[in-house]
Amino acid sequence: MMHGFIPPERYFPYLTWKEIEEMKDKENTVIIQPIGAIEQHGLHLPIIVDSAISMGVLGNALTKLDSKIPAYALPCLYYGKSNEHWDFPGTITLTAETLLSVIWDMADSLYRSGFRKLVLMNSHGGQPQIMEIAARDIHQKYGDFAVFPLFTWRVPNIAAELLSKQELEYGIHAGDAETSIMLSLLPEQIQMDNAVKEYPSGLPENSLLTMEGKLPFAWLTKELSKTGVMGDATVASKEKGDRILESLGDGWVQVIKDIYCFRQPVK
Questions:
Q1: What value does the mean pLDDT take over residues 125-147?
Q2: Tens-digit pLDDT profile for residues 219-228
Q3: Where are the alpha helices (DSSP H) in the chain?
Q4: What is the pTM of this model?
Q5: CA 82, 91, 58, 186 torsion: positive or negative?
Q6: Domain ranges of the chain
């Protein structure tokens, strides 16, 4: 099925052009663009992880969303800007310019169709800045177009309650959280026999500089990890993944509701 994890009645490409033309309350209808990546995730996870998480979390949320709230999922943008991983076979990366162009063109098309609320639902940690640039430029071009550059994992969720302190700080790629949620979404594609625990090595000590956060430095995955993993995948479980997925879905239900009610501030 083309809709995958998304409820078919919430899958935008299943609509006809006439249904879109006659849609009521189109200016408040929430259109959600899932954005992932095709990139290495260690020896135990497939390269579809970020895209699968976008679609899985969004599908969970749309299944629970009140049917009175109009919201639709676009097909996932599977390719992202993943050049930090390009030393690992299988990673497919777009340039920042290409990804921006795709998002801009997609937004132009939605605007011409009468939609005025767009969510960029990004699940890849290497491209939040691109979402923010795209959103600002789209809104500057169309003042009545509300655009939301959101990261899938930043809605309220219980992941922090289930992960170790070390994992919360350094488990940023293919570790406990991502492996657990993939065990929930695509268990047959996970090779737990190959799961490893590997945290980034060679980081600055006693320094304000970090991989991510307020004072980051640029890095490539090969400089920090031999396997492509940054985290502890060995402690992942489907039970944790089910709980994380449900909590992320609940968080996204609330965000979609808030976006449906949102009105752009104006003076």
A1: 97
A2: 999 999 999 9
A3: 17-21, 49-64, 96-112, 128-141, 159-162, 165-170, 176-185, 221-224, 238-261
A4: 0.97
A5: negative
A6: 15-261
